[in-house]
Amino acid sequence: MNKISIVGAGRVGETTAQILAEKELCKEVMLLDVRKDAPQGVALDITQAAPLFDFDTRVSGSNDNAAMAGSDMVIVTAGLPRKPGMSRSDVLEANLAIMDSIIDDILRYAADAMVLVVSNPVDVLTYRVWQRTGFDRKRVFGQAGVLDASRMAAFIAMESGFSLHDITTIVLGGHGDSMVPLPRFCTVNGIPISQFIEQDKIDAIIQRTRDGGAEILALRKISSAYDAPGASVAAMVDAVSHNRKRILPCVALLEGEYGEHDMAMGVPCVLDSSGVADIVSLPLNDAEQAGFAQSAAAVRRDIGRLPV
Questions:
Q1: Residues noted as catalytic
Q2: 261, exposed or middle or buried, with CB in 10 Å at 0-12, 13-18, 19+?
Q3: What pTM value is reported for the model?
Q4: Neighbour order of strands in the sheet with 58-62
Q5: pLDDT, tens digit, 9 for 90 and up, residues 192-204
Q6: Residue 222, SS3 per DSSP
């Protein structure tokens, strides 16, 4: 891609920008933020690392969202972070107002761009972008499942001792307490994890995956996670930028998949240069389908809070 704009130059936005630049996933990264001089400072810091990491990506910053003009993709990380004890849904009202303003600017300045939503609650805000822009659902998607699956893989590696290179995981549903990790589809080099890990420990890994963000927030106290989220966004951008047709769990708009309509949730998606090229429908068993439906109900409740 030629240009990617990141709205929100906080910790997640900065980490994302640095990885995109280092991997040269586009020619230009534009960082945008309402805080005076903040995106310019982040951009300058990353630029000064270029000689050491050997990349030519141009990184700039601006306080004017008009600078997103010409973007192939707009990544939205802006919003109020949750505090210890808060759920992602607790920041919906505050972040909805921020998102609506950003959507207006996307329509004004970057109406041909794809939109990748990171801000929480990501399922609901991804839906909001699609709802207000009217974009094709291929062009609007959110980051959550890649992060959740990465966390689950890390916990499996910690428990089993096996290399992370060989561990594959999948997590569906809303990015919250009702997410649906699917151990039946998790493997170590193609071998089901149940071959190596006892069920009670798998159950503990599932719960720790659901609590992954809250655990980091509780430990850091003054900051949510940002390294793994930034890396997760970069993995999605890499799939799009290189037209890889990778299957990654993403927040996507559902039109009948998994029995859900008119909503956005985490499902396995095929990512290529068009965005979400396809959605993979997994054969869920009764328990998995029930978990997915419960997660969908939680997301739908929050969607119901959106103003017309």
A1: 175
A2: exposed
A3: 0.96
A4: 58-62, 28-32, 3-7, 73-76, 114-117, 140-142, 246-255, 261-272, 275-279
A5: 999 999 999 999 9
A6: coil
Identify the three-state secondary structure at position 244: coil
Return the closest-CA partner of residue 189 out of 166, 212, 171.
166
pLDDT digits (tens, 9 = 90+) for 228-261: 999 999 999 999 999 999 999 999 999 999 999 9
Query: Could you give the C-alpha distances from 92 to 88, 96, 122, 160, 306, in angstroms and in order?
Result: 7, 6, 9, 37, 9
Binning pLDDT at 50, 70 and 90, where does residue 223 land?
Answer: confident
Question: Which residue is listed with tokens 């328990």?
Answer: 287
Summarize pLDDT for 106-159 with one digit per residue, the tens: 999 999 999 999 999 999 999 999 999 999 999 999 998 999 999 999 999 999
CA 303 to chain centre: 18
Domain residue spans of the chain: 3-142, 145-303
**CATH number for the domain running over 145-303:** 3.90.110.10
8 Å CB contact between 254 and 279:
yes
Domain 3-142 classification at class level: alpha beta
The verdict on whether omega for the bond into residue 307 sits within 30 degrees of 0, i.e. cis, is no
- Give the side-chain half-sphere CA count within 13 A for 255: 6
For residues 19 and 17, give the distance between their C-alpha atoms in angstroms, rounded to a whole number.
6
Dihedrals phi, psi of 253, to nearest 5 degrees: -75, 125
